[in-house]
Amino acid sequence: MTDQHAPLPLSARSAEDLATFAKEQRAAYDALLGRHLSLDLTRGKPSAAQLDLSEELLRLPRGHTDAAGTDTRNYGGLQGLRELREIFAELLWVDVDQLVAGGNSSLTMMHDVLVQLLLHGGVDSERPWSKEERLRFICPVPGYDRHFTILESYGIEMVTVPTTEHGPDPEAVARLAASDPSVKGMWVVPTYANPSGSVTTQEVAARLASMETAAPDFRIFWDNAYAFHHLTREEAKSADILSLAAAAGHPHRPLVFASTSKITFAGAGVAFLAASRENVAWYLEHLSKASIGPDKVNQLRHAQFFGSADGVRAHMGKHREIIAPKFAEVERVLTERLGGLGVATWTHPRGGYFVSLDVVDGTASRVVELARAAGVALTPAGSSFPLHHDPDNRNIRLAPTMPSLQDVTEAMEAVATCVLLAAAEQLAGQGS
Questions:
Q1: What is the C-alpha separation between 174 and 218, in angstroms, rounded?
Q2: Which of 35, 70, 259, 416 reaches 20 to 30 Å from 211, CA-CA?
Q3: Would you list the DSSP string of 113-157?
Q4: Tens digits of residue pLDDT in 88-133
């Protein structure tokens, strides 16, 4: 049966009705301009309330020696404190000896690994990557803009593949990796991907771990930034990529990254790298030229603050209580304002920090422009694609964690008005 109350999609309306609809949306937008908003949905930052959850860190550590009796105030311990690594080894499904605890930024670790591959090559490389005639990386889209920026800064070509609800399209990845030795690696955000919220399944991870690659030193940069950032009590489990790759005969392929940046203090957390033992030794050997050891005092305070892997899980439950209502509000506003009109689709994440919004093709940049003029800052259209180029000009990344719940409501109402006006302008123009 047809829902008598369902709205008629804009594409099914007459030119006259579209013109009327466009006039209504222009009036709604003009009213929006009069509110002089100043709201920001651009970056996936934790809110002050989330940061307050870790305030106890400022009163830690108690003492200054680790479990082995080492004075954390001094040099040394390049691999990081074992007691903290034990906590996160359990959470990341890795052996503690295959885990490095570093500084506050996993992005810095990723950048450093890529630079070392360019300068020296990996444990299974024939030559430094910089000596290759051509370098290409597979980039699932929509994806994380900072991954793309790293590649762009070193002139590495980016080849896109679709992101599905089950992770990167494994067959598209396998075709590219098998056919071209210049394809040296790929990015994956496996759990609650940025910005789609998709989760890479065990089956997709197994395919990526076992596929044949033309480059013998192909690398998967497995950025598990949101592994513990659940929005529901049904927690997605990250695929065990290290075990899958080792079983497939490619133990050096994955490089796993994670951090506490959105768990404790975003600017004063701890980052992690996990890999094969050979890759860990390779990383530490190169790191030793630049560092005599990480901030072990900060690592000690984190170990004491969490206490155990269960302590991390309990802490993330408190985060969920703060941010889940904001994601629910994004869903409510988009459904009530845009549902059934055929002007937008969006993801329904079960974790992570983002909602991926697709608007009418060709209108994303217009939506962002309208929102900016109305006082609502959105991530620039195309940001989730290499070189900021979305070929369909339809994707917008929404980041609702930092604003208050009231501000999320106001911002999303404004975004919905801008989506409707941009769609009405385009469709009314086509119909005239």
A1: 12
A2: 259
A3: HHHHHHHH--TT-SS-GGGSS--EEEEEES--HHHHHHHHHTT-E
A4: 999 999 999 999 999 999 999 999 999 999 999 999 999 999 999 9
82 in the same domain as 43: no
**For residue 125, is it left (φ>0), alpha (ψ between -120 and 50) or beta?**
beta
Same domain, 354 and 284: no
Buried b (16+ CB within 10 A) or exposed e, 6-25: eeeebeebeeeebbebbeeb
Distance, in Å, from the CA atom of 19 to the CA atom of 28, rounded to the nearest integer, reads 14
- Residue 255's nearest CA partner among 234, 235, 271, 269 is 271
Q: Which SS3 state, helix, strand or coil, does residue 158 take?
A: strand
* Contacts of 46 by beta carbon, 8 Å cutoff, 6+ apart: 262, 266, 319, 401, 402
Phi, psi angles (nearest 5°) of residue 345:
-130, 160
By three-state DSSP, how is residue 75 classified?
Answer: coil
With residue 416 as reference, give the H or E element that holds it: helix 405-431
Strand ranges in 333-391 using DSSP code E only, listed in sequence order: 344-346, 355-359, 376-378
Tell me how far apart the alpha carbons of residues 267 and 261 are, in angstroms, rounded to a whole number. Answer: 7
Structural domain count of the chain: 2
Main-chain phi, psi angles of 100, to 5 degrees: -115, 130
119 and 27 within one domain: no
Q: What CATH number is given to the structural domain containing 212?
A: 3.40.640.10
**Single pTM value for the model:** 0.95
If asked whether residues 185 and 320 sit together in one domain, one would say no
Cβ atoms of residues 66 and 82 within 8 Å: yes
Six token digits for residue 160: 């896109």
- CA–CA distance from 337 to each of 25, 77, 307, 409 (Å)? 12, 55, 45, 12
Number of other CB atoms surrounding residue 134 within 10 Å: 11
Tell me how far apart the alpha carbons of residues 226 and 353 are, in angstroms, rounded to a whole number: 8
Q: Which residues of the chain have pLDDT under 50?
A: 1-2, 431-432
Q: How many CA atoms lie within 13 A of 365 on its CB side?
A: 9
Could you list the residue range(s) of the whole structural domain that residue 185 is in?
66-307
**Residue for token digits 């396998």?**
174
Q: Is the backbone of residue 331 left (phi > 0), alpha (psi -120 to 50) or beta?
A: alpha
